[in-house]
Amino acid sequence: MAGGKSSALPWEISVSLASSSSYRATGGNGGGEVSRGHSSRTVRQRAESLGQGAVRTDSMDAIRQQDRGWQLSLFEGESQTSHPGATSNGGTETGATEVPLVSTAWERERALTQNLMEEVAAPDNLNQALKRVVANKGAPGIDGMTVAELEDWLGASRKQLTESLLVGDYRPGPVRRVEIPKPGGGMRELGIPTVKDRLVQQAMLQVLTPVLDPLFSESSFGFRPGRSAHDALRQAAEYVADLRNIVVDLDIEQFFDWVNHDMLMARLARHVGDKRLLKIVRAFLNAGIMTNGVCVRTHEGTPQGGPLSPLLANLMLDDLDKELERRGHRFCRYADDVNIYVRSQAAGERVMASVARFIEKRLKLKVSASKSAVAPTDKRSFLGYRILWDGRLTIAPKSLKRAKDRIRKITRRNRGMSFERMIGELNRFLTGWVVYFRHAHAKSALARMDGWTRRKLRCMRLKQRKRPKAIADFLMREGVPEWRAWLLACSGKGWWRMSGSPQANEAMTIAWFKDQGLVNLAERYEALKAKGNRRGTENVCPVV
User: Fold this and answer.
1) How far is CA 166 from CA 192, 232, 277, 423, in A?
2) What share of the chain is helix, strand, coil (3-state, %, to 5)?
């Protein structure tokens, strides 16, 4: 924690076998399954630990399990089980009630996930979730509780939170609806959960990710551990370099708003046997949205803004990934952005029609006709990049336009802030922006962006001087001859024309901006390329 605080929670969580036995979902024969799903290698290895009579559920992390000093069991002995008649040998001997053995591999795999809520409520898991929520900061939900107040709330409500999770009756609150502008126009609706709900969602995410993530396609890259947008771009560039230079660009319209709850829960129940966890996930989906003081109940959609939403989105779209793999397509998916690469326009049109039918009929979602298209890759953008016919990456024109819009917003001449503070804010944006686009072939574009940015700052600096005498004094102080300084100051030209004058360029040179601390995009780009990437390892994209 920041400030030298202990890394542990402000209270001590302990879940002993004796105290949690009333909450533990004990063994079964895998009843209540919704449908059979794909097997996970991680879960399959854990299934081998099932014995002839005693079935023990290992933690998702065996080392973490041993550190806690207790273990969870599906079928336990007489001293630990809630099954009447189970014996100390694990229930294999005849008793009042004989616990049936799990019969099939799929049932064994699903049975191993019947005690996930114990892992969710484990001290180590909650500690990690708290750290992540605090690090992510974020705005408060409808209750107004901030991240800084979360620890105090946990200190007073630790017992109730743990019990509600283990019983399965945790009740989340509605999310707060906010709108942010989309890059391509329009507004994107976000749902901000309370910080308490974000803590619970994060704790559930940390347990569900090792169960679900190994099931997902190798061509899915969004919001997955160890994968990034640059990995998706590398794979897409390889497809294009292999002469698959026609892209079927599919945009799923309002995906997060139209996800069918029943279909999503059915897919989750394929792999998760803990009914308490399923119940709480359903409660999050049905929690509702608070808009202008009115709570609207939701029957479809998973609001963007919660830690659990990206994982559920990947789970819902995994059926699409598996269908594309079954058809032998080369594709990349990042969240709800799907690109399929083919060799001809005619093939692309056929793929577009058939995949759109699959999405609408099987997933009950809608493909946006206005945003989807079949076109050469250099006519479309993917994750802010444009892929040329030979697989080289460049910055998409829309990305350059959005960057300029952001710079205009930062350098507005009526913001009433100091020049130094404006440089600092601009540097934070430019540094992150060029790091993201470090794999693009864009040296000349970045050099032009540098020149345009410096002119915007010259314009702002002159405007801060306001009057002719102040402008002339500033120019002379920076080395411009007196007569030329007064010539510009009294010219009556607009601020933008003055910023492009020889006098302004002579006073505020590239070296002058470097002394002010302004980031040079072209130089930063070259340094990043020399290192390979920001981590100093090999290039993830061989095209740059």
Assistant:
1) 25, 38, 9, 51
2) 50, 10, 40
